[in-house]
Every structure is written in structure tokens, then in C-alpha cells.
Amino acid sequence: MDIKDVPCPFCGCLCDDVKIQIEDNRITGVENCCTLGNAKFLSKSRLQHPIMRKDGKWVEVSYEEAIDETARILSDAVRPLLYGWSGTVGEAQVVGVHLAEEIGALIDSTTSVCHNPSILAIQEVGHPGCTLGQVKNRADLVIYWGCNPIEAHPRHMSRYTTYADGYFIDNTATDRKVIVVDIRRSDGAKVADEFIQVKPGGDYLVLSALRAMVRGKSDVVPDSVAGVKKVQLQRVADLMMKAKFGAVFFGLGVTMSRGKYKNVRNAIELVSELNRKTKFTISAMRGHFNVYGFNEVLTWMAGYPFAVDFSRGIAFYNPGETSVIDLLEKKEPDACLVVASDPGAHFPKSTIEHIAAIPTVQIDPCVNATTALCQVQIPVAITGIESAGTAYRMDGVPIRMKKVLETDFPTDQEILERIVTRIREMRADG
Amino acid sequence: MAEILLKNAYVIDPISGINGEVMDIAISGGKIVEEVSSKPEVIDCQGCLTLPGGIDSHTHISGTKVNFGRYMSPEDMRAGRTAKKGPMHITSGYSVPTTYGNSYRYSALGYTTLVEGAVAPLEARHTHEEFKFTPLQDSCANILFDGNWGMLRALEEGDIKRAAAIIAWTLNAVKGFAIKLTNPGGTEAWGFGKNVSCINEKIPTFDLTPAEIIKGAIRANELLHLPHSVHLHCNNLGTPGNFTCTIGTFGHVPDLNDKRQTLYATHVQFHSYGGTGWSDFCSKSEPVANMVNFRPQIVIDMGQVMFGRTTTMTADGPMEFNLYRLHHDKWSNHDVELETGSGIIPVNYRKKNLVNSIMWAIGLELALLVKNPWQCLLTTDNPNGAPFIKYPEIIALLMSKRYRDAEFAMIHQDTEKRVPLPAIDRELDWHDIAVMTRAGQARALGITDLGKGYLMPGAEADIAIYPIKTDEIDPSAEYEKIIQGFARTEYTIKRGRVVSRRGDAIIDGENTTFWVKPKVPAAYDIQHDPTFMELFERNYSVRMSNYPVQEEYLHRNHCIETETDL
């Protein structure tokens, strides 16, 4: 059996044209997908039962026991942390936010360690953006800054930008210019019409130089800026101003390098400035397939995109204080629930040590680096393959993820709802 | 089945022709009935003002741009946070509250039905997700067609029926309620950073003018027999001298419908400006109101501005960019492929600012100069003119000349030379207010047949009981009492259950989404039309099969099927 138009539950591109071949409730073939998505669709390894540490050893337990233990851990906690969320759907995230509200937890997502600075910049100066189809149909200039779509978002260029057919673009190979800005000559740089190689930490300076040029103040720009020659910057500024529609995409090279949110703010202000001359947009290259969805869900429910602390009885947001790394660094949490992400593989060592030192539960289909830090792991259906729900693409377009395989595994949402129910029962029992 | 008997209710129900009668209202199973059978819960209204539940026919409460207004504004979120209380969840936000915040606060004002004013079809799923978390009001989504390539191409070819077929497919697919046009043609032009200046200018990428888009959409709307008319945000919003554009637009509107208006023009305050620039900016409420007075086929809403901080958000992307260049605060923009645009900026309307003072006056003037209250409904274009929590103050301003004069003394002193407001003595009465906040909306939206906007047997039991004794208040002098009285109901009843009591939500609630499904003959079922499919598959960034909003997003809902003339 073939199922068409399956959205891929891997990255923020949310390519929704994947074709899946299924035999005997197993995926036997995948078409249109990139290697990253392919690997996820065809992955076979998974955790088969809930597991719990008893006397220092992992033992298989029932779902009931695992949920009971999770509810006990969260009920006993004074400063619970609910972290992750980007690899599951909105319907489960909603339960997570209600849970956080009910137990006075701090809830944060993987955003905190990727585009957190982008959000801070947007909260200062706004965000001139658009949907990806707008870029596909109109952009004659595409700029990738501090990101490498060929490795991280492999179909971004073919579906939405460089190689995509565009309504107003006669010949996408010749009529679209591509600029790549990076500290190294990545694969993306090799296909660019202009490659700007910035010295590490120099993005802010280069953005400032371009802003000056766009404002007609080229004379203040020195001959070389962060390793980039002025003549090249002037060429690029001219390309930007001559474009009918320019689209900037940026990644962690901008957000997580020296300058952080100030870099992003500078890039946004460059784009705002360019809108006085022509049409320009800027967009973040979001990672997990539904990292943006968590930002949306938490915002409509609590008012902020990430890092919300419910411990004061209201929604309190102060990144730097209520963001996950800062919290763990201060060793505040006394219990942790990890859902649909893998902090064990990405967080700084000191914070991982704290996660390991407190009772931690993970809800995830697979054994991963975080498993080693946990007391309990509850395996679930694979979202977007074995369970349906809503995800938000990197540009905010909501797409319904499909269930293409039957499974006996419960969904993230079901497990979370059972935990909430169990916590209420425990409280009622005193 | 839960039953309630309201005793001694002082009822104003304009649709049923009731203007201030003390009566009992029987409620059973979510409906108003002739009589209740067994032992109902009795609520003694003690002569308090009892109205059909409030209906906001144009507000921004759910969806992509509303949520981005929250996302980019932690300062606004901090300005309105409340703790958990009973069944009430934590809320954040002042001008753009979280979904629960919107729902609780609207409910405290007695509102039971809300129309989200602008939804891009591609992102409608998001709007429906937020509706679910706006539990105490029924909801409808106006769907944006101003830059819809399929519709524009059909209009370009002069094929109204094809345009209607595309509209019908889209409304059904995204579970929408009505056709919204925002700056028609202008949002498409904004795709390349351009705009259109008025209704007779050709738009850059289609051989069409805004006037042709508006006229075509109106005819298509009537071919589909949709409950509501075309819902229009005119071109040229917010620019000095734009009243000529507004009047020109109104001049194009035929009278095609016996039951309701043929055009609903929204937030007309923003479209009633005179002058050639900001230096000679002035009110042109008089010619605009006169035009409405002569044309029963037009209904407008005020789009009242009130002083203080708020957030502006609209599908009108180019307008928001112009506003950004005036205010120099933060600016967000979000163009939606093949469909529309949008923009957001925070603003602070100041009494000491002459332009803001004139804007404030214009909204009130429209409400006072349009003779028939059924033709001018009370809105702030929430949150663009002000957050909806300002409605009680607006009601008081309309009912009290003395309050208007007191406020007028506080605003920019040059306002007097630019506006007719001080010369207008009219004071609206309780019945006018009941029309402008619920009955008029129900009729304009075409939802009276669904039991909305009145209080006779058969109606939905959506009821607001205010702590107001009309015979004990002189509205013209005691305007503070009007503000207090409308700010917090004694009881708000939704579908036969008390959902809000003295400002607090007391149950979780569950909303109903109203959407339309025009019955289109097979020949006009555009879903399998090769040209339409090709347009879709070549140009959209999502697959056509993934575009429609699935049943899962509807929860409780009511589908309005219409017979069509296709």
C-alpha cells in the first residue's frame, strides 16, 4: 500500500509530499524524502517496554507502574522542570502546558538552546517574514546566513528557494541569486553566487557594514570587515537593493555565536531597512519538525514562546532566569520530565550532571543519550508515523501529521494525560 | 436536562421588538423555551438589564497574526496577567490576551459569540486550534480572499461563477464562515513591496482593479447565498484623504439581499479621514455617514480608537509598514503565499497627539451620525483601535454628551477645528446599544436563523444580565454607572449554562464553531478542476490534499449548508 503526501516528522521544513510504501504494517519504501527523513521513517530500533531503575539496574515495568512513579516524582517535586516538546505534536504540548500550570512547574523547549536569541531579537524589533511559498514564487535573491541547509535542511533549497519553481521566476537556475554567509566554505557555499567568509564572531560587524551601505553611508565602512573585503560587501549590498524580493534565512551560526540576539536584531534591522527600498523578508531555520509549534502553543496558552515559569501562580517569563540551561546551572530543579527531545546529547556537561542527580523521567520512543540520565523511560508511538496531530512549519504554516502505521504504543498525549490524572488522584488521596 | 428560569428580567430584545419589558425567560437544553417543566434553577434578575449575549462581528482573537502579536510582545503579556482561580486558567496579556484571557474577559462583558476578522486560509488550522481554547464563546472565521490567486484569475477572466466555486471550495476546506477582503489587490501588490492607492488603480500582477475585485466578490457571495455579506476592509486604510476612496467603494455596492446588507465595511473610522497630509488631517465622518444613511445595503462597524497602549494587527501588510515608518517601534510582517499579507506593530494612542485625538472623535461621530443603529455596529476592531475591554467606556461615550465633552476637554486642543463631534448632541439609548452590540451583529452576520441575537423561544440561550437598573440611572449624567454596569455582568449564560458570574468564569465551557458549506453542483466542484489543481500544485508550498482543515479541528461545530445559484 502507498500513502501519498505524508508530512515528514524530522525538520522544520515539514516537507508534506513524502510517499510511503507499507507492507504488513511496516514501512518498506520512502520516496521524495531526504536522507534525514528517510532514516527516521525506516528506523527500526526502539524501546519496547517502559523501564525503571531499581537498585541501580534497569528493569522492565508496566505502563501503570511507570506512570505511577512519574506522577509520584512530579508530585513530590518543589521545583519541577518540564523540558523538550519539539518532537511531538501540539495536542500533546497542550497537555504539557496544563500540567506545568497545575503543578507550578517551569516549562521550556529546545528553543531555549537554538533560536532563543532569535525570539529575544524579535521581541525587541519585530519580524518581517512570510510563508515559504512566498519565497518560492517571488524571491530573486536568497541569502543563507550562518546555516547550512544542505546538511541540516536538505530539501529547503529544492522545495522553497534556490531550485524551486517559482511563479514569477522564469528560470530558477539563472534568475535566482544565492548568497551564503558563513565562517567556513560549507557545501551550501559551493552553490552560492557569492560566498562571504566571515571570521568567527564577526557577523555583527558585517551586518552593521551592510546596514550602513544600504543607508548610503558606505564611506564609514573600512576596507575590510571581519575578514570580508569592502568591495565584496558593496557588491552584496547592491545585489540586495536591486533584488525584487530578497529572502534571508539564518541559523545557529548567527544565534549562538558571539553577539547572539544582537546579531539577529542587527539582521532584522537590515531587512527592515531594505524594505524601504524593495521587498525583503527574514526567517529562522528552525530545527525539530515542531519546535515552532511549541512556541505557538505556549504563546496562545501562557503568552510567551518558551521558558515559562508557573511557580509564582502566574505565567512568568524571564529568559536568562527561567530558561532551562540557566535553571539547571543553578541546580534549581529537583525533578525533571523530558518529552520528545534529547538534552543528554546537547546540553553542557554541568547541566547534564544535575539532570542525572535528580529524579528524571523521559517520554520517548527510543533509547538515546538522555536515557542514561533517567530513572524512568516511557516509550511511546512515533509521532508523525504512528500517531497524528498538528505541527507548525518553520514559517508558521500548520500541517497535520499523519498516522501511517498501526501501533500498540500509546501516544505522548495519552501518557501525559494519564500522568495528569494520576497526579490528581494522588493529591485527592492526600 | 438542565433548566433555568430567569425571573424579573428587564429585557431589551430588538429583533423581537421588545424594548424594556419585565419578563421571565425559560431555558432548557441550551435553548430558550416557552416554559420549563420540572424544578428549574431560578435566577431572580431583580429588574436588571437583560440582553441577548453580546456578539463581536469583527475582532482579532485567534490565529497566526494574533498569536504573533503575543509572541513578539512580552511587555503586553506582563501587563495583563491573572492567576488560576476556580476553573479559570492562568492568563497573560493586556491588548492581546492569551486565548483563555480573551474568553474570560469577553464573557465578563456578556459576550457569547465572536467573529475572528481575518484568517488566511493556508493558516486557518491555527485559528481553529485557538478557538478550542476560547471556550466561552461561539466562533466564526472570516476567510481572506483579497489576494487569492484562484479567485483573482477567475475574476480576471470575468468568470464570476468560477470565482464563486473557488470561494465555496476554500470556505468549505478551511471551515470558514465568510468572505473577507482586506485592502483587495493591495496585499497581493505587497508581495513585491507595493500597494494600491485606491479602487480604480490596476494592481501590478493581475489585470484587475480593487473595485473589480470587490464587485466580483459581492456577486459571488450572493451566488453562494452565504449567511453573511462580503466583509470589507477598504483600500487605503489610515491615510489622510482616504474618505473619497471609502465613499467611492460604497458607491459600487448594489442592493442584492432582502435579509441583510450587501456589504459589511469594517472599522470605518480608519477610512474616514480628510486632508492631504498629517498637517491638515481632519474628520470626514459626515460624508461617510451620509453615504451610509442613503444606502441601506451597507452596514459598517466603528473601529473606535481609545487612548492608551494597544497592538495593531491586520492582513493589510503595506499599511502596517507605513505605520511602522511613522512610529519607529517594532514591526512584524507575514505574507501568505497566493492569498494575503499581514503586519503587526504596537501603538500608543495619546490624548496629546492631534491625529490620535481626531481618530478618537471620528469613531464616535460615525456612530452618532449614522441614523440607523442597525447600520453602525460597536467595535474597536479589537485590538487595533483599543482592546475590547474598553467597550463599556465607548457605550458610555455614545450615551452621554456630558461624558464626551468631559473627555474632549482632555484631548489635543486643536481637535475642535478638525472634527464635528462637539456639535453633535445625539445621545444613544439602551435600545440603540442593544442593537449595536448584539442584535445588529446577529442580523448583519445572518445568524438570527441559528437562534442568535434574540431571546424568544427557539433562540440559543446566550444571555447577558447586567447590574443595571435602567430606570435608576440617568445615562447622560451618570456615565460612570454605565461603564461599571457594562464592565461586568451579574450572569453570562452560554447555551443555557451560567458561564460567568460577576466577572469570573465558573465553568470550563465548550465553544461551537460555525462554518459554511455551499452546495455546489458537480460542474462547479473545483476540487477536480485541472487548472485549479495545477495552480495549487505548482505554486503552493503545501500539497492540496494537506490543505483542508480536517474534522479533528472542529470539535463542537455547526455547518451552515447553503443552496447556490451555480
Largest sheet data of chain B: 10 strands, parallel
Give the strand tally of chain B.
24
- Which overall shape of chain A is indicated by the principal axes computed on the Cα atoms? globular
What is the C-alpha radius of gyration of chain B, as a whole number of Å? Answer: 22 Å
Tell me, what is the CATH class of the largest domain in chain A?
Answer: Alpha Beta
Coarse structural class of chain A: alpha/beta
Roughly how many Å is the radius of gyration of chain A? 23 Å
Structure description:
The complex is a heterodimer of chains A (430) and B (566). Chain A contains 18 helices and 22 strands. By secondary structure, chain A is an alpha/beta fold. Chain A has two domains: 46-113 and 289-428, Rossmann fold; 116-284, Dimethylsulfoxide Reductase, domain 2 (3-Layer(aba) Sandwich). In chain A, strands 5-4-20-19-18-6-7-16-17 form a nine-stranded mixed sheet. A five-stranded parallel sheet of chain A has the order 11-10-9-14-15. A three-stranded antiparallel sheet of chain A has the order 1-2-3. In chain A, helix 3 (90-103) packs parallel to helix 18 (412-428) and helix 4 (116-125) packs across helix 13 (261-274). The longest helix of chain A is centred in the C-terminal third of the chain and has 17 residues, at 412-428. Chain A is globular and about 75 Å long. Chain B has one domain (51-458, 462-505). Chain B contains 17 helices and 24 strands. In chain B, strand 20 and strand 21 (497-501) form a beta hairpin. At the A-B interface, helix 3, helix 4, strand 8, helix 5 and helix 14 of A face helix 1, helix 2, helix 4, helix 11 and strand 16 of B.
